[in-house]
Amino acid sequence: MSIRRKELGDFLASLRSKCPPAAFGFPAGIRRRTQGLRREEVAQLAEISPTWYTWIEQGRDINVSSDALDRLARALRMDRTQRAYLFELAGRRDISPLPADPELPDGLLDNLVQGIAMPAYVLGRYWEVLAFNPAAAALFSGWLDQPGPHNLLEYVFLDPGARILVEDWEARARRLAAEFRADSRSSLDDPVLEAFVARLAAESPDFAEFWRRHDVLERQGGLRGFHHPQRGHLAYQQVTFRLVDHDEIKLVMLRPTT
């Protein structure tokens, strides 16, 4: 029995034990030997075989489909974190993840980056810039210091100024396309994303070429060089953070190396 399968079974058993039968339409009864729902009751709610569900809890070497996991998550009324944990343990992609938490309060992201001394900006799902500080505007002169809206991919691939500012532009642009593809892996069928990628590919042959390669890379830190028109050569260490409850939102900070 693998550790993951045992963890999956233990997780379901633990969650089942915390479900009040009456809240799920079953009589509480005084003859119940265990707390919470019975295995056959969970199987009934999820519309799967009781034997099959028992095997899942026992950690047996069986393949559990994404559809079955979805029905189990709904049957046990899992929240967003529990559902993500379930699919992660099972090694499956969530076919219908719960929507993101409510939008962040107005002004929160702006207040966040304004308190950072080094260049910092926040990217959304489509790498639109949601907030940035004066240090970032000064670094990305000709872009962030101009009226918005701003989008990092549009800047890199469509603004001629980016080819001058960004050191080793081709390597950085190729990596950005691969990072964006990896970042979008859970929403490749999103119509808004499809339209954005199609438009960018139509306007930038470079992006179209890099996107066709299907390279995927996680957005990582590392050295970033710039040829600034007023300040000359600049070098930074890039660090990227994600918000826990809004993993599509990324905070990027550039720490000067000199």
Automatic annotation (TrEMBL):
<dbReference type="Pfam" id="PF13560">
    <property type="entry name" value="HTH_31"/>
</dbReference>
<dbReference type="InterPro" id="IPR041413">
    <property type="entry name" value="MLTR_LBD"/>
</dbReference>
<dbReference type="InterPro" id="IPR001387">
    <property type="entry name" value="Cro/C1-type_HTH"/>
</dbReference>
<protein>
    <submittedName>
        <fullName>Transcriptional regulator</fullName>
    </submittedName>
</protein>
<dbReference type="InterPro" id="IPR010982">
    <property type="entry name" value="Lambda_DNA-bd_dom_sf"/>
</dbReference>
<dbReference type="Pfam" id="PF17765">
    <property type="entry name" value="MLTR_LBD"/>
</dbReference>
<feature type="domain" description="HTH cro/C1-type">
    <location>
        <begin position="11"/>
        <end position="83"/>
    </location>
</feature>
